[in-house]
Amino acid sequence: MGPVSLLLFVPTYTAIALSPGLCMMLALSLGMSLGVRRVVWLMVGELAGVMLVGLASMAAIFAATTAFPVLLVLLRYGGGAYLLYVAASMIRAGLASQSAGSVRVGAISRRALVGRGFSTAVTNPKGWVFLISFLPPFLNLARPMFPQAGILLAMMLVIEAASLVAYASAGAIMGRLTGWGDGARWGRMVPGMLIGVLGVLLLAGVI
Question: Rounded to two decimals, what is the model's pTM?
Fold first, then answer.
């Protein structure tokens, strides 16, 4: 990757990482209810998932199979439907916590947080669609994949980690300033609504 490509990659990927995607909304939500220190375990899982998705996306690009365009279309529509399902689930959970009182989200174990972060990153359709569409200009298909993948993944993980910390910190501050208690109710409903918007945009082909 040359200096021009590097200068283009870093700000562009940073802008996308900071957009309110599924992983960032989860970090915001749990930051409100658990605090930043506990959410670090979620971040560990999410970063491992991002690394796996990034490496798999690069391998798919290098493979350049004939079935790839069809799979990308299926991923877009299946991913949009999945986002709407996640949004509906989060909103229902928020409404349930509204009527049932406070939810003991603090009881979530470290292993559960790591697993939740990893599964969220791996099953995040926006991440797959974006990386498969975004990475080709930054890859030299005439050169070996792994040296390039190492450089790109290192930059991606640093940017993702900083973005996750920013969202979790914002969630913790919002939880304290608004008096939302443990943040369980609004921490599910507000991100759920935003994720639902993402699902509609993905199905509509806007993103």
Answer: 0.70
